[in-house]
Amino acid sequence: MKKLFYLLLCAGLFISCETAPVQQEEDPAVNKVWAWVSGSLKMSEEKLEHYFAIADSVGIDAIIMECHSGYPVVLDSTTFVDSAAIKIIERAVPYAQKYGIELHAWMWTTNRCEKHLREAHPDWYQVNAQGESCNDIKLYGREHYRWLCPTRSEVTEYLKDRARELARIDGLAGVHLDFIRYPDVILPYGLHESRGVVQDKVYPLWDFCYCDSCRAAFKELHGIDPMELEDPTANAEWMQYRWDVLAKQASDVCEVIKAEGKMATAAVFASPEESKKLVRQDWVNFKNIDVVLPMIYHKFYGWEDEMVATATREGVEGLAAAGSSAYLCSGLFVGHMPEGKIYEFMDMTRKAGSKGFCFFSMEGLDRKRGGGDRWGEVAEAIKKYKEGETVTE
Ligand SMILES: [Zn+2]
What we know:
Layout lengths: L1 H15 L6 H4 L6 E6 L6 H14 L3 E7 L14 H17 L2 E7 L6 H6 L32 H15 L6 E5 L13 H4 L16 H11 L13 H24 L3 E6 L3 H8 L11 E4 L12 H15 L5 E7 L8 H10 L4 E5 L1 H4 L9 H13 L6
Parallel strand pairs: 1-2, 1-8, 2-3, 3-4, 4-5, 5-6, 6-7, 7-8
Helix pairs in contact: 3-4, 6-9, 11-12, 12-14
The structure holds zinc ion (ZN).
């Protein structure tokens, strides 16, 4: 009903506005509003009802629900089927259907920390330039920083299996890939101080993947063992190899999702260049993907507000230059948008070329500084956004 209302509203606007692009009338992706929310087996029925009902009432079209996080609940060491992730999504489907909200299953991808996997296949984990496996060391002091190798075909098959078992859930709209990258070789700049790291350049401790498979594959192609490179970052082939092999793995996983008739989407780093530099993620070259949602959490980068538009524009242009068929939807961190400013940010990303807008996160909208929540502000902002209103300076 809500969608019909907006359609009628938009149709009305187009009759009275000759300059409006015709495309907006036909493309449901335009001005589509998304939101990320954590899911868990412990989430109560009341909580599920809350998130889907409120999404419906404020105009959120799609919910991306996390179903495999850093600390997986069910450890099935025989089949590796992530039954907990499946159950989390299956419980949410009736609510999505009740309220007419698109539901996407959000999975962690190369960052896999299930204990049984770590025990069964320690050799699948990424190795740094010092020869240490992230299965053995605690990167950045984080227990969940365990990353799978992008070169090994067994890893890709494992990830395809996990994506496929989610994509097969009836009533699901799509599978959303998060953490589809290398561990941070450099953390976003605004986090260095709080994490107590000095990362003025690339250091071997945080530079991955130098596992046997990656070294052998690169040597086969270029005749060099990357472990012997004096300045690995300066070696164009070695950088390109890592970007390409990860993009290929992402593309292969997306292909499985598409084969099940579902949308493939991914949460990626803020801009194409920063992504390649910080986490070796060349997301403009991910194939078989419908939507990329850059996480433009600008304060973590120490960026001014305007950089949200810059990053959005660079992403849109990057996708076009790479000949990608995917479209971009900017994802912003709720806590980085001051009270009363949400619509300005939505409008800023739209003007920079983002087709839709994604909130991180619904939990973040549930609360505000000093008490209460931000749903009233969000409802108003989304209404204006869908009406196509723009901020006047
Ligand atoms: Zn490797």
